[in-house]
Design goal:
The protein is an all-alpha fold and 118 residues long. The chain folds into two domains: 1-35; 56-118. The chain contains five helices and no strands. It has helices at 3-25, 29-38, 49-52, 57-89, 93-117. Helix 4 runs antiparallel to helix 5. The chain is elongated.
C-alpha cells in the first residue's frame, strides 16, 4: 500500500468513526425529558467556596511535617534492621547495648507511626 493510499484510508476511517459517534450521541427531546425527571437534587455535586481555597500555610506545614515524619520513619526502620543484623553476631555486653538501643528506637518508631496515622 502506498503512503498516499494509507493516508486516504486513515482519513476515511476517522470520518466514518466520527459519523457513527455523532449518530449515537443524538437524543430526542423525549429522551432528555425522561433523563431530567430521573435526576434527583441529591445527585448534583455542590461546590463551595471552601473547595476553591488555596491551602493555608498551616496546612502546608502539616503536610511537610507528615512527609518529614515518613522520611524519619524510613531511616529509623533501616537503622533498626541494621542493628538486628548486628545483634545476631554480637555477644555479651555488646548484645545488651544493642537491645537497649533497639528499645529506644522502637519507642521512637511507635511515636512516628502515631503521627503518620493521624
Amino acid at each position: 500500500m502506498k503512503k498516499s493510499e494509507l493516508a486516504a484510508f486513515i482519513r476515511e476511517e476517522i470520518k466514518s468513526t466520527l459519523n457513527m459517534a455523532e449518530a449515537t450521541i443524538e437524543t430526542s427531546p423525549e429522551d432528555l425529558a425522561k433523563v431530567k425527571q430521573t435526576v434527583d437534587k441529591d445527585d448534583v455535586i455542590k461546590v463551595t467556596e471552601e473547595d476553591d481555597k488555596e491551602p493555608t500555610k498551616a496546612d502546608l506545614k502539616a503536610t511537610k511535617g507528615l512527609a518529614k515524619a515518613k522520611e524519619e520513619l524510613a531511616q529509623l526502620t533501616k537503622q533498626m534492621k541494621s542493628l538486628a543484623r548486628k545483634y545476631k553476631e554480637a555477644e555479651g555486653e555488646e548484645k545488651a547495648q544493642i537491645v537497649a538501643d533497639l528499645k529506644k528506637k522502637t519507642k521512637l518508631k511507635k511515636e512516628l507511626d502515631a503521627i503518620i496515622d493521624k
